Amino acid sequence: MAIFEFKLPDIGEGIAESEIATWRVALGETIKEDQPLVDMLTDKAAVEIPSPVAGVVKELRGQAGDKIAVGAVLLVIDTAGEAATSKSEQIPAAMTAPAPAPVTAKVAQAASAQTIVPVREGKPLAAPSVRKRARELGVDLALVPGSKRGGRVGHEDLENYCQAPAAVAAPASVATPAKATDVEQIRVIGLRRKIAEAMQRSKQRIPHFAYVEEVDVTELEALRVHLNANKLPEQTKLTLLPFLMQALVKAVPSFPMVNATYDDEAGIVSRYQALHIGIATQTPNGLVVPVAKHAETLDIWRAAAEIRRLADAARNGKATREELSGSSITITSLGPMGGIVSTPVINAPEVAIIGVNKMVERPMVRNGQVVVRTMMNLSSSFDHRIVDGWDAASFIQKLKGLLEHPATLFMP
User: In DSSP terms, which residues pair with 62 in a beta bridge?
Assistant: First the structure.
């Protein structure tokens, strides 16, 4: 047996420790050189750590949510090339025997003949969406065999389990529903913890000033529909966001105080000539903010393509640290669920965030006549230490004028 202790390498300048986001290997697993071992979470992204050697995993030092210092042993690998022990040897018989399947009102569960492979004792591994679906079906995830890496349960595992044949006993009479007593305790770790900490710091340290203005986007929406109907096959479909990016490019030079970051410990405001727009993006693991760098160089179609590329990378967990850092102002939108008004939290150390609410058709008075117009609110927040209320309102009014007269977006 040749033991190799793999120590957490330096994964970024100034990073002294990193949090385990997801193990990519399990105890006893035979691994290859350069195979992903673990995702380690930094302030901005999950960094995939590959193995420098081949062998068998003998020890994992920590679990998801634990913080490991740079240079500390992360896992132990036997590099002698010994074959991994069989699954039946690794797992006690009590864990491999199928448990009795409970019958619920939603689904009759059937124990599968496939062996359940637990990564560690306790709650089975599964994504939040899988857990939610299991709760809806009344399925105990501990009984569902996981086919993903490390025994993780996927949607297809849950569906296969639910479709397995099972005998369902018909109740003799309608029973009174039992009182719900279970309490699910979820450890706040990984990206969710980073989001929570960032939101807390932002609200604690930044005096938020909110400003909401309604915008008539009737002409803008007509233009968007027309451009999409006549776009080239290789061009990305336009949403509202590329137009808002173009409006920011036009408006920000007159309001440099909003395109800035504030180091409140050093007392320094950094105003940027370049426009690096953060695009708040919902992912399966939480909210992340990939950055469209140098938006001032992007036309409407390239902006749409960049937004799509960054959103896909973020949702697939492939966005790099560089793509998740360096923003100077942020756009946030809930799309069709945008609501009437919102109070977005500033993405510190930035000083402004622009929130997009949903578009709705409403009767409006125009030139003494009641007409139907497509209306949308912009709900924005500003750091009141850096941006005065008058400047914030004037900036949003500038955006409003550009969006209500979309031809001006394309004028020099």
Answer: none
For 294-311, write each residue's pLDDT tens digit.
999 999 999 999 999 999
Indicate which CATH number applies to the domain containing 347. Answer: 3.30.559.10
Domains: count for the chain: 3
User: Hey, what long-range contacts does 155-161 have (CB within 8 A, 24 or more apart)?
Assistant: 155/129, 155/130, 158/130, 158/133, 158/134, 160/112, 161/109, 161/110, 161/112
Q: For residue 169, give the DSSP letter.
A: P
Domain that holds residue 224: 209-410
> pLDDT per residue over 341-368, tens digit each?
999 999 999 999 999 999 999 999 999 9
17 in the same domain as 40 = yes
Choosing from 34, 312, 388, 405, which is the catalytic residue? 388
Percent pLDDT > 70 in the chain is: 85
Please say if 384 is a catalytic residue: yes
User: Which amino acid, residue 171?
Assistant: P
| Residue 363 maps to a domain | yes
